[in-house]
Amino acid sequence: MAVTDDVTLAALLAQHDYAGAATHLRQVMDSGRRDAAIRFRLVDVLVAGGRGAEAAAELMSLADQYDAAGQAAKAIALLKRAEIVAADPFESSRRLDALVLRSVSPAPHSELAAEGAPTAAPRALRRPLLAGLTGEELLALVRGLRLHAFQPGDIVFAEGEPGRSLFVVASGSVKVFVRDPSGHPVLLRELLEGTFFGEIALLTGAPRSATVTAATRTELLELDRATLDAIAATHPRVGEVIRDTAKARSGSEAETRARAGEPGRS
Length: 266
Ligand code: CMP
Known about the structure:
Blueprint lengths: L6 H8 L3 H13 L5 H13 L3 H17 L3 H14 L4 H15 L6 H4 L6 H6 L8 H9 L2 E5 L4 E3 L7 E7 L1 E7 L5 E8 L3 E2 L1 H6 L6 E4 L3 E7 H10 L1 H14 L3 H7 L7
Antiparallel strand pairs: 1-8, 2-7, 3-6, 3-8, 4-5, 4-7
Helix pairs in contact: 1-2, 2-3, 3-4, 4-5, 5-6, 6-9, 11-12
Bound molecules: adenosine-3',5'-cyclic-monophosphate.
The site of adenosine-3',5'-cyclic-monophosphate has 18 residues, from strand 5, helix 10 and helix 13.
């Protein structure tokens, strides 16, 4: 039964009985249902009931699971969320550091990744923003990120707006649109987990060169200019990687084609 169909849970939530709802969800999990959807639901209920430490523990356990499956950016997002909801964020910070450092060591890929999961942990985390960074550089960057959640179709920002931050896709995906000569939006690119966007306005101070929307439920990690400057001062490679990507994307052939009204590839 889907969690949303669960009448008992709905009734408990309608009465704001978060303790009862948490107990109910744990009973459902004890009976064998331990998929991510029900565990995320439990996290929401625990947070609503003011039980941040338990919610953080659940998020950290989910993060371990995603990390083992090769979804490192998603694992980072979960650990960031654990830091936010935890009464004592020490444990989630420690795990976050361990995850980031593990991603730069040449550890063997998980079985799932070997069987053809889209990306192995090290590559997912390092592509392309983090490619070439040392463990310490990676750690400095990840610590400076802020987490945001979007629903499908939500606009992250619109072409022409001012913007002073860049975003890493932690989970889900986003679509990048530019306008054709008649003003209609044309899809330029779909950007998947592990990629980043928003670096052009961040670096140049120019308005956003494209509109970006969430293609799915999406979590983004935001890095603002002040944080980037602080990191780049001690870790120049972070700035270099971002500048190289901005250069490659600005006025690219794909963008020229899209602005002329030809749809792009994802
Ligand atoms: P920015 O101009 O800040 O906001 C729009 C973003 O869309 C831009 O930064 C890039 O991150 C992204 N973008 C622009 N052109 C491309 C492209 N050719 N491929 C992928 N992303 C792009």
